[in-house]
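for the record, two folds in this file. i put them one after another cuz i was lazy. first one right below, seq on top, structure tokens after. the second one comes after a little note so u can tell where it starts
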Amino acid sequence: MGSVPANRKMVRSAMAAPYLERDEEHELAVRWRDHQDQDAMHQITLAHMRLVISMAARFKNFGLSMNDLVQEGHVGLLEAVARFDPEREVRFSTYASWWIRASIQDFVLRNWSIVRGGTSSAQKSLFFNLRRLRMKLSQGEEGLGATALHGRIADALGVHAKDVALMDSRLSGSDTSLNAPVGNPLDGSSSDRVDLLESDAPLPDEQVSTIIDEERRNHWIGEALKTLNPRELQVINERRLSEDGATLESLGNTLGISKERVRQIENRALEKLKITLRSAHPEIAAL
């Protein structure tokens, strides 16, 4: 509560501060640059706080506190004072405007939504100009469809139309918690939004069925492997059941036989497994 009177006092002080003439502004800037004169820096910032307030007012439609916007603009103003070169033929207000605007825009992008966005210069331009361009184009051509409108905005800002559509959808609504209630809690029909999200995962009964089927198939294959002789079993284990399947050549070197012979043993073992599985379990004949 105490911050409101303080900010009102700051606004009144800013509006009452006298404008600086060019020579006076230059003298103060030199005193700050060469001697770190705190009084000179204070006079420069106080004289330009009305610029900060004016700039902050342009961003109040993003739903953020005006006090916070002014504070962030003040940060940008202080940065401008620290970097300003009084020897350049430019007024401080012109130089400071960029820093004030950049500081406020960064604050808006960080706090407007919990979802980060607008990290590139093109995305920032889209974020801060989309509403203005949409209103301008909509008034100029009535009946312009969303797709055509997004295309016009994309051309104007040099971004992709899909980025315009995505940003437009984000600006059309605020963040909503997944734990926000939906329905009427008084009659017991209330639930959380997260309960309404559709899951791509299999249903619990489908998961259990899959697990049971896999266990059954693994058991059948394990029983069928018992019909192989030791060399056939080794070839199948090395070639088919290991994560890094051995090549015919490397396995042939291990067994002391040619790679063609390894191929023959492997094919014979696979055929024996198929015959065994089809005989005992016709329903998995496709294996």
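(here's the note) second protein begins now
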Amino acid sequence: MSQPEDYWGWIEEGRYNCELSAYDAHLQAKHTFVDLGAWVGAHSLLASATAHKVVSVEPDPVAFDILAVNLPKGVTPIRKAISDAPGVVTMGSGLLGASTTRTNPLAGSGIGPWVEGQTFEVECITLRELVKDLSDPLFIKIDVEGSEEAILKDLELFAERKPTVLLELHPFWWKDVDQTWKNFEALKAMYKTSYQAIRNTWVLHD
């Protein structure tokens, strides 16, 4: 299975150290780790060495096949998209298998628009439905190329379950930018500690 060699090289170069250090600081054996936007599995692989359970969610069919090969025994990948309602959604990228597969077809932050032939349909699931049978405490990593907008509509879920969260924001792909920023600020206010790990990536925990 062909691997994205540039990404694994970036890991070795330390480009993601600020994000990955959040696991050293906050991930514990008691956690159920939920990897939303698992891509090819780097975060799931790291978390599986600590968390007692790992759930890896990735909708992109090319990335999903690589993810399934990379995951250790006991971690089952789920090929669905996270949204605010069940159903089927169209997703795309400039190149399937890259890390920018998303529901918004437009260009953003230097990333080009969808390319013809690089789209697919996939079943959706809400975060609430995904985690309903998972044990607390949860540690949820969210890197879903703009679909965090849909996830942040259910602030009640975060208030109820109080997961530790590693969240990457992509405001250039949000549809209602003002409201989503308000939802994000409301989410931060729920936690005793919130800090920016790097760029638009935040850690929230109690």
